[in-house]
Design a protein that fits this description.
Length: about 1000
């Protein structure tokens, strides 16, 4: 080789920083120029194979390839002569070819740097494109430096940086061009996951917005100061930078230093705050950022506040937002919590500037936008608004060019805002809803539940089951069984100590640092009960004897019975102690870290004034936090609990969004995923683990349906606009509403499409609970028998062809499923469908679905249904039916425990095998059709299962149906969703039926 591989790092980085912004061209001649000597393909390939992941040249190469992979504007022709699509292997091959490299080099690059696939979903109204054109004409300094910070300081993967680049583009391009002469307001919503990087996303949006010309940014955080301060620091550190924080002052001046925020901050002292450089800040068109709030203080009235705000017109003959003026002015950033006092002060100081504000491009970021922001006054009873909603909308009226973007992980309250409230400013996201992709390495609800696995054919172990690995049931109630409650809390406390010792072990073996190690105890929202919980935990800590014989025996048992097996299966390359004896020396180190701030590590975090004094120790930014946090609302909304490893959770909430936000155990757990444990309430009154599984189904159903309706129809118009989203919200658990009742005044679902989604209709009439009357028993048996005799068996009798259905499993392997198949006319199916009896609480799901199917059948968009009756490849539990020509396999699916009203889900392989039919693919023996839906019908025993081989009687058998409508039954923007707008004066009347055709 002509050049040592390590020597390529800096030349490659320098070259690709510019090249990545244009179409790929032959790279080796230019790379030779940057290196100052010839560079061959072998040199480059050797570098890619040998360079460490965080090498600057490799980071830049990953970023460049990810951008080219994902670009929708890049026009490259593939080997087949067709234009390549973004996120495809064909695109990557074309990129590497245009770089002048061989197929062999492409293989090495793809192995080391996989193809990036874009994951954001956008539901949007039509908008006027402007951003793509002007971003190349205006400064991009703040975004460029933020992107560099994510790559080099935070070590984000290139694919994640490309995703945030694309998703922030999708937001900013839907805002109004800040230089637009006329006033146009945009309102949007960005949906992320709990503790998944929403702050990083809106920081990127702010960076691009300031670069593009927005000169006032108001970030409204949640309702608590620790969240506001946390957000302020993040934006100061990653976007504003050292120069804007210091604001021209001399930090070495003692008087100045006293007023600066971060003089004791470890990251500030370690020079980890972004630096822009005076040269970059002095470039034409680059705005300096003026901080109106600080890490220590929320918005304060004049003179500390908006008196700083000075927008001088460079050309006084033109408006402030003319380019000649806008790009000679500073930007002002306010980080304010959603409390009435600071918002009122902000409004008071803004009002005198009304004339200037009419010309000021402003951006409002509303974090946790489903909390406090939504008007919860009943429109039937009051025309007034709740206070925070009123204040936010008042700010938008004062600043008419303000663009509003809400951020939340639980969007149900936002999409239930009345979309037709046009007589005043409201916060309905009328212009766009963007669903962020799930980040790599994120631990969310999916990582704690087992949704897809087929336990009939796969063993359930800590390696295969998330529940077995991470979840530990608790049932001890301090009011009913205090002894059990203490025992369970002690076990969780032991897990925290043991996992802390394992982190110390890993620090010693790898040199990595676990700066924070926390445990969360969340039993109630009432402050008095936090004190009780803290007293119990302190008592357990003080009597724990963790380094003596009794305590060590408990820890050894927990290691042997729990942690050893899970670490062996899920450590992911992290070092694992071979035995408890190898770990034992690190236990005193962990205890020392936990008690470094006092006699015990317990910290109450709530709004009680007596607890506020302790919260200085909760500042994750200042130093290491190895603490047990006990609290409620302050720990369940937006605030990131760093290093959270052990959660003890008993709090019940009746709303899906409230409960989901309480899941602080979701997030990124680099280096300790295998150590995370969730001790969660599972008793005869409520199963919170099952509730979170229902939340997972609700959340994924919402995101999946957004994905089905994203994009344009054949006329280039949006398939669905945000005002048509509410019926996409589903509910899988009767007692767990999507959001609070006072946020659902306008939610009236009449019909909904189900394109691309299987509806598993398994909520049939429930068994009578003991003691049931003879009349109740007879009614249940009659419904049971009628469903089977009048609907299920007639459907199965039509499945008269034996077939083997090919499908691709979720791991990418090709598989087959045995089945019997047949057809039924669409009108005949509706007649049978109308005979089915359902659980009374399920009619709110069945009726809208039936309404859609009936309309699509009437219009000829559904002409028939394929029936797929799954069979076993080998013999199993079968039952003879006189109505059927072959023995019927009886599968194992159980009723879920109350309050759930459904059965466990249809086997994944049956759903996958049937999935090709609605897309128009051929079915063996039956051909294909674009107007054909599919029914998967399985027979199961409605009883408590004990043995697979045990005989089943006919009167125990029920049929469960899953269906999916033809993909083309929704052909354009018409008839996707139908819902009613409630007359405010009469809650039960529907004033106007709004369907997708009329809504356009």
């Amino acid at each position: 080789m002509s050049l040592a591989a390590p020597s390529l790092s800096q030349p490659l980085k320098n070259l690709l920083q510019g090249l990545a912004e244009q179409a790929p061209i032959p790279v080796l001649p230019m790379l030779s120029g940057f290196a100052g000597q010839p560079v061959s393909e072998d040199d480059l390939v050797a570098f890619v194979q040998q360079a460490p992941p965080n090498d600057p040249g490799m980071i830049q190469l990953r970023l460049a390839l990810a951008k080219w992979d994902a670009s929708n504007d890049l026009k490259l022709i593939g080997a087949d002569g067709q234009e390549t699509g973004s996120g495809t292997i064909a695109r990557r091959i074309a990129v590497v070819k245009n770089l002048g490299l061989s197929d062999e080099a492409e293989g090495v690059l793809r192995e080391k740097i996989p193809v990036h696939v874009e994951g954001a979903i956008v539901i949007s109204r039509e908008f006027e494109p402007w951003y793509e054109e002007v971003r190349h004409q205006r400064s991009t300094m703040y975004w460029d430096h933020y992107e560099k910070y994510l790559a080099q300081e935070k070590k984000w993967p290139a694919a994640s940086i490309t995703t945030i680049d694309q998703s922030t583009d999708a937001v900013v391009e839907r805002l109004t061009d800040p230089t637009r002469p006329d006033i146009k307001r945009t309102k949007g919503l960005v949906v992320g996951y709990v503790q998944s990087g929403k702050t990083a996303n809106f920081t990127g949006v702010i960076a691009k917005a300031i670069d593009a010309g927005y000169r006032l940014v108001i970030v409204m955080t949640g309702t608590i100061e620790i969240l506001r301060a946390q957000t302020q620091r993040r934006i100061d550190m990653e976007l504003m930078g050292v120069e804007n924080v210091i604001a021209g002052q001399d930090p070495n001046d003692p008087e100045v230093a006293k007023g600066l925020d971060y003089q004791q901050d470890e990251d500030w002292l370690a020079d980890k705050f972004v630096r822009h450089g005076q040269e970059a800040l002095n470039q034409p068109g680059v705005a300096r950022i003026r901080r109106v709030t600080t890490h220590k203080g929320d918005y304060k009235s004049l003179p500390q506040g908006m008196s700083q705000l000075r927008y001088e017109r460079h050309d006084k003959s033109k408006p402030l937002n003319a380019e000649e003026n806008l790009f000679h002015t500073d930007a002002y950033v306010v980080i304010v919590k959603k409390n009435s006092a600071p918002l009122k002060k902000l409004i008071k100081d803004l009002k005198p500037m009304q004339a200037m504000l009419n010309e000021l491009p402003a951006l409002i970021i509303d974090d946790e936008s489903d909390v406090a922001s939504v008007n919860t006054k009943d429109p039937k009873k009051s025309k007034d608004r709740t206070i925070i909603n009123k204040l936010i909308t008042e700010i938008m009226e004062i600043v008419p060019r303000a663009q509003y973007v809400g951020y939340t992980a639980t969007p149900f309250a936002n999409v239930f805002i009345d979309p037709d409230e046009t007589d005043k400013v409201d916060l309905f996201p009328s212009d766009f809803v963007l669903s962020l992709p799930r980040p790599p390495e994120y631990m969310g609800v999916q990582e704690f539940h087992d949704i897809d696995p087929d336990w009939e054919s796969a063993p359930k172990t800590v390696a295969t089951s998330n529940e077995l690995a991470y979840v530990r049931a608790v049932s001890g109630d301090p009011d009913v069984d205090p002894a059990l409650h203490k025992d369970e809390l002690r076990l969780a406390l032991d897990a925290w100590v043991l996992s802390g010792a394992i982190k110390k072990y890993r620090e010693a073996k790898t040199g990595s640092i676990f700066r924070h190690h926390t445990m969360l105890v969340h039993e109630d929202v009432r402050n008095a009960l936090h004190v009780d919980s803290a007293s119990i935990v302190r008592g357990l800590w003080n009597t724990g004897k963790f380094t003596s014989g009794e305590g060590l025996a408990r820890l050894r048992k927990l290691f042997d019975d729990d942690y050893a097996d899970v670490m062996a299966a899920r450590a992911g390359g992290e070092p694992v102690p071979a035995s408890f004896n190898e770990l034992k020396p690190y236990i005193p180190e962990a205890i020392a870290e936990m008690t470094s701030g006092g006699a015990d590590p317990v910290l109450i975090v709530n709004s009680d004034k007596e607890a506020q004094a302790q919260q200085e120790a909760l500042d994750f930014d200042k130093g290491r936090v190895w603490r047990i946090l006990i609290g409620g609302a302050k720990l369940s909304r937006g605030f990131t609990v760093e290093g959270l490893t052990i959660s003890y959770f008993r709090r019940k909430a009746g709303q899906a969004d409230t409960l989901m936000q309480a899941g602080r155990w979701f997030g990124f757990r680099e280096g300790y995923r295998d150590l995370v444990r969730l001790y969660i309430r599972r008793d005869h009154k409520v199963d919170l683990y099952e509730a979170f599984e229902a939340l997972l189904l609700d959340e994924e159903a919402f995101r999946d349906e957004l994905g089905k309706y994203a994009g344009l129809d054949e006329d280039g118009k949006p398939l669905v606009e945000p005002r048509q989203i509410p019926p996409l919200v589903s509910q899988h658990l009767p007692w767990l509403k999507p959001t609070a009742r006072n946020k659902m005044f306008n939610a009236v679902v009449k019909a909904r499409a189900s394109v691309g989604t299987f509806h598993q209709l398994s909520s049939i009439p429930p068994r009578p609970t003991a003691p049931a009357t003879p009349k109740e028993q007879a009614k249940f048996r009659a419904q049971h028998k009628a469903n089977l005799d009048n609907v299920v068996l007639p459907l199965l009798a039509l499945a008269d062809h034996a077939a083997v259905l090919p499908y691709v499993d979720s791991d990418g392997t090709n598989k087959e499923q045995h089945a019997r198949v047949g057809l039924i006319d669409a009108d005949e199916f509706l007649k049978l469908f109308d005979k089915l009896a359902w659980h009374e609480n399920y009619l709110s799901v069945i009726d809208p679905l039936r309404a859609f199917i009936a309309t699509a059948t009437q219009k000829g968009r559904i002409k028939d249904w394929a029936i797929i009756w799954p069979q076993r490849a080998a013999s199993g539990r079968d039952l003879e039916f006189s109505e059927l020509s072959v023995p019927a396999p009886i599968f194992k699916r159980a009723r879920r425990q109350p309050p759930r009203i459904d059965f466990t889900g249809e086997n994944k392989r049956n759903i996958l095998a049937a999935g090709a039919v609605p897309s128009g693919s051929s079915l063996p023996g039956l051909g294909k059709s674009d107007t054909r839906g599919v029914l998967v019908v399985s027979l199961v025993a409605d009883r408590d299962e004990t043995s697979e081989a045990e005989a089943v009687a006919r009167d125990e058998v029920v049929g469960l149906i899953s269906l999916r409508v033809p993909d083309k039954s929704v052909q354009s923007k018409r008839d996707h969703i139908q819902y009613g707008v409630v007359i405010p004066a009469k809650a039960d009347e529907v004033a106007v039926d709004v369907d997708a055709q009329k809504a356009g």
